[in-house]
Amino acid sequence: MVPLYTCCPFPSSKALQISPSFLLLSSRNPKFLPFTISRILRATSISTSATKHEEPIRTSYAGVQLEETVDETKQGKLRLDSWISSRIQGISRARVRYSIKSGLVKVNGRVVDKVSHSLRAGDKVDCVISDLQPLKAEPEDIPLDIVFEDDHVLVVNKPSHMVFHPAPGNANGTLVNGILHHCSLPTVASSEKEVLFDTQDMSDDEQDIFHGASAGAASVRPGIVHRLDKGTSGLLVVAKDEYSHAHLSEQFKQHTIQRVYISLTCGVPSASSGRVDIPIGRDSNNRIRMVAVPGLSHHGQARHAASRYKVIEVLAGGGSALVQWRLETGRTHQIRAHAKYMGIPLLGDEVYGGTKNMALSLLRPRTPPYYNDELSRLVSRLERPYLHALVLGFEHPHSGEKMRFSCPPPPDFGEILNHLRKIGIEKPISKE
From the candidates 150, 229, 241, 412, which is the catalytic residue? Predict the structure, then answer.
């Protein structure tokens, strides 16, 4: 390992200060619930509708061909990239987009290089999947909000809208690029042709561990133990040596890492606190979205997922709520999928139903008429799912010391919250 310098011997004071309004942390020793970890990289298979039961398991998609006519039963328009992704099981949408932009896709005999091209029933699509170019992560001098650092670990407060790691179409400006520069590490590259980094397919806010990934995957994610979605802000820990990485990874596997999230929701849960135990699997109609599937998992496609929640504040007369989440499992998009299942999608989460139109439909009837213009401006500024990783706790891999950090949400979260409080705020009656 390259020697790394120490930036801060003790936790940053700003990371330990939270506005008194965030009463969810009123206890000095809050209870934390364990969770399990899902791997971000897994073996994939590929099939077309004609050979679904005949194709062997694939580890490479380069050269795969798809010749198919859009189903006549399909209604309306379909995006070209989405449709191709749905026809080739397991492939990353980023890989499909790269193939489209490379001129390897024809619609009705004509080359189409626009990924959002609209398909209609009866269109004939000819596609060849391109070879995957090695992905490099270059060190970049990107300002990082370092909450804590010593010779072994780095705790970072990730801003919203920052892509977590390099991916096709997002090779620069990511958190990993910044970490490489901060830790004085050289350029690294994937040596595996099938290491795909699709921040849209693999996005999310939950604890996707990189244990078990290929050597190429590990190389572009130096010391990364868990991750946060592009739109999610908050705390994460980075290991700076192999022992620390192994030790922290084991803590995730043993469910001893402490993590608490807060979110703003569209609407309010019917119960002020509770547990959601609903399996989660990938949405067959939209590869970038997960879906909560009640009942038993179907052929292993849906995995056990459990979340505990607590309403901290009822906002805007019930049009929204400040909700605390603690996870027993760590599935991709777990909070977002469970919130949608509960009928309270996260505010600003366009993928899971927390759209601007839904927010207005819930907030406007509860807002005084003189506030309507300001409300419209407020909703128009919703640009991401309002989810923040508020608390992170773990055992230091070398000293064994119990480390615990908290960091208030960023200004955009606070601004939305304050506006909603102006409309109305109530404290739910606790049953605890």
Answer: 229
